Amino acid sequence: MRQPPARATIGLVVATSLAWAVVASSGLTDRAAVLGGFIPARFGPAPVLAGAVPAVLTPLTATLLHAGVLHLVFNMLMLGFCGRFVEAALGPGGTLIIYGIGAYAAAAGQYVADPTSFSPMIGASGAASAVLGAYALLYGRQVTTAKGPLSAQIVSVLWLAAAWIGLQVLVSYAASGENMAIATAAHVGGFLCGLVLARPLLLWRYRHA
Known about the structure:
single chain; 209 residues; mainly alpha; Rhomboid-like fold; globular
């Protein structure tokens, strides 16, 4: 069956790619990361950054900033592939909700991991992880059964969460040996958000069906 056009997903990919192109062509990638990236310490008694985006909006603006073309391409491939399937199930509105709340969940995860950090977090990977989480729950093969008071759906969510967290820990460990900075906590926060919101948004979309 042919899927409907994934307008929200395409819009997110195009907007993010254009934002990267504008910032990269200006040669201000590092400055943009400081002014528009998510910096956990800004939510504490940190000095005010002149010209910076309001801190409360930085989880969203951070998704528009990327360190390089490979960083952008990887995130957009993940978002584009998973997003079109998620949008087929949840619709454009549900997809945008997953992505937007996922961006804040990713920022929350990064804040919990290191609330005093002055290092800016940039990239759409946290928000895209929320879309990936929704994709995994909606399209993953259901092989779990109820465990005691836990329904099969909850068990499935817990297994997916455990698998993703384990994978992120392994990736983070491998990257530490290469001196690469990966926002592991943000990826976990975003993915968990997608797992939690996928079913409610699916029921919300078809509540009158």
